[in-house]
Specification:
This protein is of the alpha+beta class. The chain is built from 14 helices and 29 strands. Helix 2 packs across helix 10. It is globular. The chain binds one RNA strand of 74 nucleotides through helix 1, strand 16, strand 19, strand 22 and helix 10.
Length: about 500
RNA sequence: GCGGAUGUAGUUCAAUGGUAGAACCUCAGCUUCCCAAGCUGAUGACGGGAGUUCGAUUCUCCUCAUCCGCUCCA
């Protein structure tokens, strides 16, 4: 069976991530746990770098954004105010015929005549099924169509010549037990709670129920007043937060892209209501640019505005920053105009005034919010995918594939590797000296095993931008070789000039 | 949660109803070694559980995980 090429890249990357210590499956030795991934030594560095780049760009380099680090477990009423308790715990039903899924509370009530069947028999094989099934017919439709639908149901379960059994009819009023599209019976409504539930305190009764936050944003709204007062910020201004969030996803999928425990990088930017649209545009551009600046090619990125029917009830406009994943365009970040919905909700539920008084204009209003909300863990996956490259470097008859992660230097786990040409201890003292010097400023790896070529390739594969080689000449001329990951070019430089050169090449 | 596929060293694969081989990786030794050089040696696997069987990695069932599709989202 031919494996689609898109999948190959993904499989190679997942394999590299494990082999080199970027990403492991959570609880690996126990067989893993669906939707959870651990970050190994290099992955931990990479993920921190992603978050730090975001934090630096979004808060430290700006005067109009301040940070927040709130708890994962908060007062459960926060999630009632935000709407998560309702929208994240809908009972769901599946159509028994098409397997289409419905929110039980959104099914339009149906009336008509229900045809019940107790089972069916295969007239060819004699095999019988005793699964009960029913079809609802709107008034006026012939009974035959109900029987046809029922026959399909049993045929899908393995009968070829279906003979329906135990037919009876029942008048039904305003029922939500049937698929409005085809009349087929639905499964019993099953609760679907996308929020992780836990108990605060050792007594696990109903009153102690709390939730692991499904997003970091709500803490920002809940602390809006405290931050506003203590930071002495004036609207427009923003509050940024990076942290874990948890969702009981129906289907965790695609490596670290959709997981049940993940990390978000969220900004809530508060603006005067009238300035909403222009700030929305500003943040869309700003955020797209951030990905480009950190090494994702523009042709793998796009910004896509939501259609009206995709919009949340509170949003007047949302755009996604999407990345071309091996499985297609998918979301890295959503930039939403949330209006004053959240602050008003929390104001109403808490009884606190969460409005803002604009001194110069002498007006009082609830600020509108622009929310650029990015997934740190899926962004990391995108950076890895964009950086992954295989290059033919063989000479003529002999093929040689060089695998290289062309990560942005800011993101790369190691910035520099120090490699003594030989393990001979004549080189060791100088190599260690260079390592200490560079390590004071940059995350550095030191490797003296195996051949120099192999070590270069190893560093290429984990995305180290620069390698420094200490050789026997270095002992005499106090110079070393600096080799670039992307071009494999080398330059000889006196050790005294090494640090400025690294700074120049790395860009920081 | 539903449907389909898959599961053997760290990775990628092979073989087998009589307890498993390789390549790469990793580690150690030799080698003044600048682009996966060579030689020697070493570590290391049948996802988990139950059943059938004299005996299961192989057959059956269950379970867990991964991939693809449905669905959903940062």
């Amino acid at each position: 069976m031919a494996v689609p090429k898109e999948n190959e890249v993904m499989e190679k990357l997942v394999s590299l991530c494990k082999r080199r210590g970027f990403v492991f499956q959570s609880s690996d030795i126990y067989g893993g746990i669906n939707g959870f991934w651990d970050y190994g030594p290099l992955g931990a560095e990479l993920k921190r770098n992603v978050k730090e780049c975001w934090w630096t760009t979004m808060t430290r380099l700006r005067e109009d954004v301040v940070g927040l680090d709130a708890t994962i477990i908060m007062h459960p009423r926060i999630w009632q105010a935000s709407g998560h308790v309702d929208t994240f715990s809908d009972p769901m039903c599946d159509c028994l015929l098409t397997r289409k899924r419905f929110r039980a509370d959104q099914i339009e009530p149906q009336s008509g005549l229900a045809y019940h069947f107790s089972g069916a028999r295969d007239t060819a094989t004699g095999r019988t099924l005793t699964d009960a099934y029913a079809v609802l017919l709107p008034p006026g439709k012939p009974p035959e169509s109900a029987r046809r639908t029922a026959a399909q149901f049993y045929a899908a379960r393995g009968l070829s010549n279906v003979e329906l059994q135990g037919e009876r009819t029942e008048k039904v009023e305003n029922s939500t037990r049937f698929n409005p599209e085809n009349g087929s019976l639905l499964t019993e409504p099953r609760p679907f709670n996308l929020m992780f539930k836990t108990y605060v305190g050792p007594v696990g009764d109903e009153s102690a129920i709390a939730y692991l936050r499904p997003e970091t944003a709500q803490a920002i709204f809940a602390q809006f007043k405290n931050v506003l007062e203590t930071s002495r910020q004036k609207v427009p201004f923003g509050i940024a937060q990076v942290g874990k969030a948890f969702r009981n996803e129906v289907t965790p999928r695609n490596f670290t892209f959709r997981t049940r425990e993940f990390e978000q990088m969220e900004l809530e930017f508060f603006v005067p209501p009238a300035e909403g649209p222009q700030w929305y545009e500003y943040w869309c551009n700003e955020r797209l640019d951030w990905y480009v600046r950190h090494g994702i090619p523009t042709d793998l990125l796009r910004i896509r505005a939501h259609d009206d029917d995709e919009l949340s009830h509170y949003s007047t406009g949302t755009s996604d920053v999407e990345f071309m994943f091996p499985w297609g365009w998918d979301e890295l970040e959503g930039i939403a105009q949330r209006t004053d919905y959240d602050l008003k909700q929390h104001s109403q539920h808490s009884g606190e005034r969460l409005d803002y008084f604009d001194q110069p204009n002498n007006e009082r209003y609830v600020p509108y919010v622009i929310e650029p909300a990015a997934g740190a863990t899926r962004t990391m996956a995108a950076f890895l995918l964009a950086a992954y490259d295989e290059e033919e470097v063989g000479d003529g008859d002999k093929s040689d594939i060089r695998t290289v992660l062309r990560l942005h230097p800011r993101l790369a786990p190691y910035k520099v590797a120090v490699l003594p040409l030989s393990k001979k201890d004549t080189l060791t003292p100088l190599a260690h000296e260079v390592r200490r010097m560079v390590g004071d400023r940059y995350m550095v790896d030191y490797d003296e095993t195996q051949s120099i070529g192999k070590r270069y390739r190893r560093q290429d594969e984990i995305g180290t931008p620069l390698c420094i080689t200490v050789d026997f000449d270095s002992l005499d001329d106090n110079a070393v070789t600096v080799r670039e990951r992307d071009t494999m070019e080398q330059v000889r430089v006196p050790i005294a000039e090494l640090m400025p050169l690294l700074t120049e090449k790395l860009g920081f």
